[in-house]
Amino acid sequence: MAGLSLLRVVSNSDLASKEQEERDKEIQERQSSELILGMSAYLRTAWSAAKIAKKPIEDIMLTALRQRNGEYEPDKMAAIKKQGGSEVYMMITEVKCRAAESWLRDILLDNGTPPWDIQPTPIPDLKDHDERILEEGVQEKIVQSIGQGGAAMNEQEITELREIVAQDYRFALLQEAQDRATKMKHKISDQFAQGGWPEAFNDFVSDIVTFPAAFLKGPVVRRQRTLGWEDVDGKTVAKPIERIAPEYERVDPFNIYPEPGITNIQDGYMFELHPLTRTMLSDLIGVPGYDDQAIRKVLELGVGESWIKSDVTLTKDDEERKFHTEMRPTDMYDALEFWGKISGSMLREWGMSEKEIPDPALEYDANVWMVGNYVIKAVLNFDPLGEKPYAKTSFIKRPGAFWGSGIPEIIEDVQSICNASARALINNMGIASGPQVEVNVDRLPPNENITQVFPWKIWQVTTDPSGTSNQAVRFNQPEDNSSKLMAVYEKFSKLADDHSGIPSYLYGDLNVQGAGRTSSGLSMLMGSAGKGIRQVVMHIDSDVIKPVVQRQFVYNMRYDPDESIKGDAEIVARGAVNLAVKETMNVRRLEFLQATSNDLDLELMGPNGRAAILREIAKSLELDHEEVIPSREKRDLLQRSQAALPPVGAQQQPGAPVPTHPDGSPKGGQAGNTVSNQFTGGAS
Predict the structure, then answer these.
(1) Is the pLDDT of residue 14 over 70?
(2) What is the layout of strands, in order, in the sheet containing 363-371?
(3) Residue pair 336/45 in contact by the 8 Å Cβ criterion
(4) What is the pLDDT of residues 230-258, one digit of tens each?
(5) What is the share, in percent, of the chain residues with pLDDT greater than 90?
(6) Between 439 and 599, where is the model more confident?
(7) Phi/psi at 601 (nearest 5 deg)?
(8) Distances (CA, A) of 136 to 132, 148, 156, 158, 169
């Protein structure tokens, strides 16, 4: 029929397939663009260089893990088995590492107060205060003076008035700055508690004593799923909620790959390797900054493993007692997180605006994620100074080096010598535990058992066929060298104390010679040993705690809606300083207290002076010093009340008023006599 045309009917499945093909084509075009391919090629080149440069450090870290686990290196274990004998491993490294971890946690985590503080600057600059307020205060004072009938002020009086008003203004300014700093400190403490800081820092302490460097990451803003509470019909009901909040995490040193040749994290680029499960990767869908379509394509294809996996990963898993991880049925995706410089043209191509990238020819600090051949994220570094959200330090720093040294590396030689001494000692004890028997088999009758020696054994022998009078059985006792070998072991185990800076008396060794036999001498030794750990705490203060708190402070200043916490303040890390001051001052106070415990000094100091010293010592011991040592006012009040009481047993004068307590009960003689009569049976 004229005018009619045929309509094509397409099913829903065909439409969905067509849309999927268009999305795949769009992803391939974007990922295959010249600039994205150039970005991927650059990241692969940078990754290869960083991976090769880290190989010697990975060997050191694997050795450190084996030392803590009490395991020999594979080549050394093969040689020991070939030689035969004992395979004992003395756990000196593990003991030293555990003692160092405990010591650091006592200093930095178990004091009850955080090892950092926020204080206003000496001259705070607050947004709501300026010189105009000061001038208005001066004018107001002048108007008040004239309004009260005073004469006009001369220049000197105005200058004096200005100084008085300025002092009041500076005091109010400092007070408000302190209030804001205190509120900011409480805010950051709450963010640390909810963002995983205690757990991350606890794991960080284990890393710093074990590996050449330890890393802490944060604040990183992430979507958190937590438990909330709401009121439903008068009842409190649990409800899961999601929120965007800063988080902190310990980063495995095995997963950090810095640019070759750099000294600090901020000097060049750096990679972090993320082993992600399928669930972890899918959770990134919908997070701002990530390419949802690229992530879906990665999940569909299952890519991201082949060019990153190495034998180090499997060896590390075995040392961490994660056996047979290669048989894990869960799909794993290795993502590379890059922090460094990226050309502006690449970022423009990714979709950033001209406002974000004003000059495509410049290099910009960027954060790029790659999974296989797919770039799933490319954004600018959110930090205003372009700093990476990582902090790192080492137990022992090496000048000019990115990686330092941990305790296992420091005492590796001492550990090897102690192991060799222990193996030789056990082997010698076994050999010297009984005689070595030499048997002339020509003089033994057939079927004589020569494999066992026991008391009262009778040896049957025949005539010596050679015609000599040599014995058929000879017993030789091997020399016992156990005392010499034990002396060698003890000598080098003591050297482990010196090399690591963790003496054995810190973790319960009672065999302390010399000055350590007295309490004051042991206190002096522990104070000297603390100098080494203070150096480590200072590294943590300056390299980790202060930068992380500073970044959280900047984050709150930029994004937190509460203006009452914002002010001109500075971050103070006080772990090492407080430790040194507390230890030194407490020891000196105790020494001063003992030195002044004589009649002459007590007469000079008086009870108030001695009470002041005791109160400070009670403070350092975290006691309730107001209850243990009453203040001067309380002591004076107590003395006056005692002076007003008549002596116990004194007779009350007839007609005299009876002194009473505020509750109306009698005090003094009558109450005292009553108590006295109770204990004396009423006898006078």
Answers:
(1) no
(2) 256-258, 270-277, 332-343, 363-371, 374-380
(3) no
(4) 878 878 888 888 777 889 999 999 999 99
(5) 24
(6) 439
(7) -65, -35
(8) 6, 18, 19, 13, 11
Q: Which amino acid is at 21?
A: E
- Amino acid present at 378: A
- Exposure b/e, 348-361, CB count within 10 A at least 16 = b: bbbebeeeebeeee
Predicted TM-score (pTM) above 0.85: no
Give the C-alpha separation, 641 to 644, whole Å: 5
Q: Among 528, 538, 498, 300, which residue's Cα sits nearest to residue 407?
A: 498
Question: What is the rounded CA–CA span in Å between residue 58 and residue 403?
Answer: 11
Give just the sign of the alpha carbon dihedral 333, 337, 343, 345.
positive
Mean pLDDT of 594-609: 74
Q: Looking up tokens 């002339």, which residue turns up?
A: 440
419 close to 90: Cβ distance less than 8 angstroms: yes
**Which tokens belong to 481?**
């060298």
Burial class from Cβ neighbours inside 10 Å (0-12, 13-18, 19+) for residue 183 reads middle
Q: Could you report the per-residue pLDDT of 114-159, keeping only the tens digit for each? A: 888 888 888 777 555 555 555 555 566 666 665 555 556 666 766 6
Which residues, other chains included, contact 391 with Cβ-Cβ below 8 Å and sequence gap of 6+?
215, 216, 217, 265, 543, 544, 547, 548
Average pLDDT over residues 280-292: 84
* Structure tokens given for 88: 């004992």
Q: In the numeric block, which tokens belong to residue 259?
A: 């640019």
Q: Which pLDDT band, with edges at 50, 70 and 90, does 671 fall under?
A: very low
Distance CA 417, CA 406 (A): 19
Residue 43's H or E segment, with its range, is helix 34-69
537-541, 660-664, 666-670: range with highest mean pLDDT = 537-541
- Give the whole-angstrom CA distance, residue 119 versus residue 184: 10
Distance CA 319, CA 65 (A): 6
Nearest C-alpha neighbor of 397 from the set 387, 406, 408, 384:
406
pLDDT band at 214 (very low <50, low <70, confident <90, very high): very high
Largest separation between any pair of C-alpha atoms in the chain: 143
- Residue 539 or 168, more confident: 539
Phi, psi at residue 626, to the nearest 5°?
Answer: -70, -30
Helix (H/G/I), strand (E/B), else coil: 52:
helix
CA distance 222 to 370: 19
pLDDT class of 621 with cuts at 50, 70, 90: low
DSSP single-letter state for residue 253: G
Q: At what angle do helices 292-301 and 12-31 cross, to 10 degrees?
A: 100
Report residue 505 as tokens: 């008396």
Judge whether residue 678 has pLDDT over 80. no
| Torsion sign (Cα): 52, 55, 58, 62 | positive
Instruction: Give the count of beta carbons closer than 10 Å to the beta carbon of residue 27.
Output: 16
What is the C-alpha to C-alpha distance for residues 72 and 80, in angstroms, rounded to an integer?
A: 9
Give the per-residue pLDDT at 31.
Answer: 57
Residue labelled with tokens 């001109």: 568
Residue with tokens 């991350």: 200
Coil vs helix vs strand at 307: coil
- What CA dihedral angle connects 543, 544, 550 and 554, to 10 degrees? 110
Answer yes or no: are the C-beta atoms of 296 and 302 closer than 8 Å: no
The band of 486, judged by pLDDT with boundaries at 50, 70 and 90, is very high
Q: Which two tokens stand for residue 543?
A: 């390299």
Cα gap 623→593, rounded to integer Å: 18
